[in-house]
Amino acid sequence: MSYYVVDGHCDTAGLFLSEDVNYDFTKKNKTGHIDLPRLRSGGVKIQFFALYIEAEFKPSGALHRCLQLIDGYYRTAKRCRNELLTIFNLADLREAINGPKTAALLTVEGGEALENDLSVLRVLFCLGIRGLGLTWNQRNQLATGVGEGIKGDGLTSFGCEVVREMNNLGMLVDLAHINENGFYDAISLSSAPVIVSHANARAICDHPRNLSDDQLRKLSDHNGIIGLSFCPSFIHRENPSLETLLDHFVHVAEVAGIDHLGLGSDFDGIEQTVEGLDDVSCLPRLIEGLLSRGFTPQEVQKITSGNFLRMLEKVLPAEQKKREQGRM
Predict the structure, then answer these.
(1) Residue 298, in any domain of the structure
(2) pLDDT tens digits for 230-288?
(3) Which of the listed residues 36, 86, 113, 322 has the most CB atoms within 10 Å of its CB?
(4) Contact 212, 175 (CB under 8 A)
């Protein structure tokens, strides 16, 4: 049985603005974790590209930085327009599934980019953004990140407005990095299923970025998905390895159910990798590991792509948009 992958999170878009002459997305690189040739080698059909707003641009300058990152993505994508498809809607999603191109879906990591203005969210949607992580680790105008503590204030009134408008537009609500109260507020408020794009199981590794079993059950109850991260500190405090990462897959499948489990590698957002998952081209080793742990081929297909595809079918807008400038 052949598998292809939908990866719910990477930070590679930051490299598109890098002045490092040794990195070229269109070619296989010795630096970074992701590029177009290695995406193909890893069997990735759809890659979520998160636009991460660095700390020096917060709170002032977050929108400006976000626009720079969007521009960097489109300038890069234009160079490989015959090989890369940007997903805006369901028609694009189906083209991605059935066609030969690698596909990209753009998200923003951190609501600071909205600068407390709902109209900015709508403009970002017009520019191709199809998902938003409400927080990074800090507190912002929408909610509180886990860097301020697992407990604390939940969604702000503006955060509630943002979730509702994302539902209306057809954007993925991403609850990675948010604290527990914000998580429960958002998951109860959202009329569409939510994602936690890159996190693991706190029962296996007690890290604040990981989800408790209660959170996993709540995510399952609301038909959401968690993309498991390859970040070593989320996997195990002493022995982060492919085997201990597989422990997380087994645990989440048991607690939340197989239909709520996906991949959120966090490639190019992590400084170190676990042995055997050095970059995106190594994903077949993860698939072999899942099969060795007793997941059936049909279950592995759900984990690697099927569950995220189901989510995208429910959330993305249906209409075929006019091809914008820079649209691939």
Answers:
(1) yes
(2) 999 999 999 999 999 999 999 999 999 999 999 999 999 999 999 999 999 999 999 99
(3) 113
(4) no
Would you state the structure tokens that stand for residue 61, as one six-digit string?
């300058």
Question: 286: buried, middle or exposed (CB in 10 Å: 19+, 13-18, 0-12)?
Answer: buried
Give the strand pairing for 172-174 and 225-228: unpaired
Q: Determine, yes or no, domain membership for 251.
A: yes
Q: What is the DSSP letter of 135?
A: -
How far is 222 from 44, CA to CA, in rounded Å?
27
**Assigned domain for 252 exists:** yes
- Is 16 a member of any domain? yes
Residue where the block lists tokens 């028609």: 91
**Band of residue 324 on the pLDDT scale cut at 50, 70, 90:** very low
Question: E-assigned strands of the chain?
Answer: 5-7, 44-52, 84-86, 102-109, 129-133, 172-174, 195-199, 225-228, 261-263
Whole domain around residue 237: which residue ranges?
5-315
The CA distance from 103 to 6, in Å, is 9
In this structure, what token pair is assigned to residue 96?
């991605």
**C-alpha–C-alpha distance, residues 159 and 163, integer Å:** 6
Distances (CA, A) of 218 to 137, 195, 257: 21, 12, 11
pLDDT band for position 323 (cuts 50, 70, 90): very low
pLDDT single digits (tens) 141-174 = 999 999 988 888 999 999 999 999 999 999 999 9
In total, how many domains does the chain have?
Answer: 1
Q: How far apart are CA 312 and CA 295, in angstroms?
A: 23
